[in-house]
Amino acid sequence: xxxxxxxxxxTFTLTYLVWDEATKDAVVIDPVLDYEPVGSKTFTxxxxxxxxxxxxxxxxxxxxxxxxxxxxxxxGSQLLRRRFDAKVGIGARITEVQEVFRGIFNIPELKxxxxxxxxxxxxxxxxxxGSLAVEVIATPGHTPACVTYKIGDAxxxxxxxxxxxYGVGRCDxxxxxxxxxxxxxxxxxxxxxxxxxxxxxxxxxxxxxxxxETTIGASKDHNPHINAKTSREAFVAFRTARDRxxxxxxxxxxxxxxxxxxxxxxxxxxxxxxxxxxxxNLFSPADELGEPINKAR
Length: 297
Hints:
alpha/beta
């Protein structure tokens, strides 16, 4: 099994191209569609780099896998799906995320049955990507739909587990839960210590270079948020307090809105222009005039 890594420094996202050199069968995990919020402009540099690697290697892309509906970058899954006739998969509990955000974004036409995706993946399921066997491990907590993918000796953990010197993902999104994430991480920590871990992001602390590979053993030994000695109570208290201080991700609204629809752009309106819904003051207790945001009128 071969792994090539792509790092998007704008969103700190790690995208993985995984393939079998003998058969050329391949999967991509968490691809990025570049988005500039100033001017609301999309561009394809990140997904084009992945595309070039697939073509240069003579690979057959079988699956595009999402670890969850990301809140910090738009997915490039639909471009890869069209370019390579690949299927797009995500955790089956994406339906819960769709249901929540259909209301938040006021998009009644959004389907909440997960039908936008080719594959809805469940805990314990193994899906074939040609010669590659991908085991699905449910790791909710950051979102209810988060999954980890095991391919060979490698775990692709999304936001459930980051580098061993950084920590884990936040749990304050709708239906997120620090208590649930603790349980999910314990499932991962039950794997052999030598198991390799490839996180969904890297936010280099103290100016170190970007990294994308660690092990279960290293995380259990010294992960600063949750290691083998961390109690459930201590983790939940820490995570809850930390999340209260974190700002919303810069690309939260465009990312989630696109990603719960499997990376599809909104349909053009009558004037031929596509529009995103952006709620105002969603995370503020009151507007600038002091009126409660949710006050009945």
